[in-house]
Amino acid sequence: MNNSVNYIQKAAQETHSGLVIFDRFDRSIVFNNKHSSMYEFIDPHSSHTYNDFVLGCVMHRTVNHQSLYDEPEGWINYAREFRRFTSYSQSFSHHSNGRIIQVTYERLRGTDGWWYQMRRDVTDSFLDHVRNGLDVMLPFGWGDTVAQPTQSAFVVRLLDALPYPAALLTPRCQIIDGNQSFVSIMSRGDGFSVLGGRLCIPNAIEEQDALTKRAAGFFRRRTHTPVTLRVSRLDQPAPYFATLSEPPAQHIGWDSPTTGILLLTIVDPDALPAVSPRTVADLLQITGAEAEVALALCSGRTADEIAEDRGVERRTVYNQVSSILSKTGLRNQAAIVRQVTTLCWHFGSRA
């Protein structure tokens, strides 16, 4: 146990991260100076609970998540349930001062319910990647602050850590592995199905053709830029957004190359956490009106439908889309959808 704590403390020091370790009663037993400097309202000379930390963030308006201030007890209860079922996760927190903090959580093995959170300021790296086209699975130092798993279970750990349906495919759309959310979509038969072990879109031949061609040609392109496709659904007007990209790790299970393996992530616009236009505008450095258009695209609306909803000419919306592409360097509307979807999952409010 002492070895685990010493390792984590050393990793936090090397990565300039704030560290706090809690016991099974959610009381802090270790926290370093970096954590104290990031959250000055915490007394460095006394223990505090996780509840104290959350309520301190509320009192000092530390983070830029309105739902935290609307229902802090809801956040505390959600976190408690999350820790019951999750052994490891990484997420991002958008602070009110504009800083973006990577939060690593892990339960400590061999202890009586101890767990830790490590917080690292990744503002510069995050904004650089946003400007250069953020992949939904882009890791900011994935594994930098924790030891690599000793068992060959990285794929399962990776997929299960994602908040949305995800699977690994071959370029022929053969399904290698998937998380529980992906299995749930398959079981509903809504938009996707499996035929002979391959992923299919049975209700739209043209969409199936697009999926097959994009998957088969992904690694033949000079740059392996993520590709987003719209997938029609049977009972819902909003489509799924399916993104093909490379897995974020260099190895699967740390002993097999990922060359030729695709990561598929599926987003249901109706299930996306809500994010404010202001947050999108700040992170993408676009105007508030452009952020509203970007969010509408992310909800499955076309540019023509957005113009009708907003009571403006189509040319106005098309100009706003062009402005977003120009300011962000993104290539097309699908890239805008992928970008904003990522921001929703990282910074959106969950019920």
Low-confidence stretches: 133-156, 250-258
CATH architecture of the largest domain: 2-Layer Sandwich
What is the CA-CA span between the terminal residues?
36 Å
Strand content: 15-25%
CATH class label of the largest domain: Alpha Beta
CATH topology of the largest domain: Beta-Lactamase
What is the averaged pLDDT score?
Answer: 81
Work out the oligomeric state of the chains in this entry. Answer: single chain
Helix content: 40-55%
Count the domains: 3
**Could you state the CATH homologous superfamily of the largest domain?**
PAS domain
Structural class: alpha+beta
Task: Count all strands and give the number.
Answer: 14
Please give the radius of gyration in angstroms: 21 Å
The succession of helices and strands, N to C, reads: HEEHHHHEEEHHEEHEEHEEEEEHHHHH
Shape: globular
Q: Largest beta sheet, briefly?
A: 5 strands, antiparallel
Number of helices: 14
Widest β-sheet, arrangement of strands: 2-1-5-4-3
Domain HTH luxR-type: 283-340
Protein name: LuxR family transcriptional regulator
GO biological process, one term: regulation of DNA-templated transcription
InterPro entries: Sig_transdc_resp-reg_C-effctor, Tscrpt_reg_LuxR_C, WH-like_DNA-bd_sf
